């Protein structure tokens, strides 16, 4: 049962939408309670008569917050709010942060507390705000997010036999069983073209991903694999944030 009243809980905004004339419903990722929704009364509009910003102006994406709420139902009412810091993102890195927010919004159930999830989210935002390799950071976030939610990929071992994958092997992804080894008739163009096949992945890439590292030459494979793996849990409705990347 959700706590009726919680004080000073670390949280980040995932999504907000208008509610009635001047209020908002805000979905938060919290440290101890997972994804929750709160009503923020009087959040919209100009600054107050004393010149202070309305609380809605503090509830922006990528801002670290301390929040307090109360309420008997699943939808809580925000009591107090303190903004600790804002992680600035722009351009393609802003789109990447919005993509991560939408993933969490879609994959998490309300009040589903997940150990280490908030730390993973903060790790992502801090790396997005730096000069680190964007594609590598996103793939590692997706991989570790699936792990934390119990949807992790069985990396490192072949389906059926359970044998350890080999660096020079190729594997076909089966969502129900894992990665089946693929045997080629020869060492000609079939092997050379394997990396371009939508559902064939090199053992070297899979083993590296299991160890949270991805070389540049494997980023394309890793992107294809993670899109397949994440998509299994999203349903048929497309991610709106991906349209931002297409327009960039």
TrEMBL record:
One of its GO terms (biological process) is double-strand break repair. Keywords: DNA damage, DNA recombination, DNA repair. Residues 9-82 form the DNA replication/recombination mediator RecO N-terminal domain. Pfam families: RecO_C, RecO_N. It comes from the Bacteria. GO terms for cellular component: bacterial nucleoid. Gene3D superfamilies: Nucleic acid-binding proteins (2.40.50.140), Recombination protein O, C-terminal domain (1.20.1440.120). The keyword DNA damage applies. Involved in DNA repair and RecF pathway recombination. Belongs to the RecO family. This is DNA repair protein RecO.
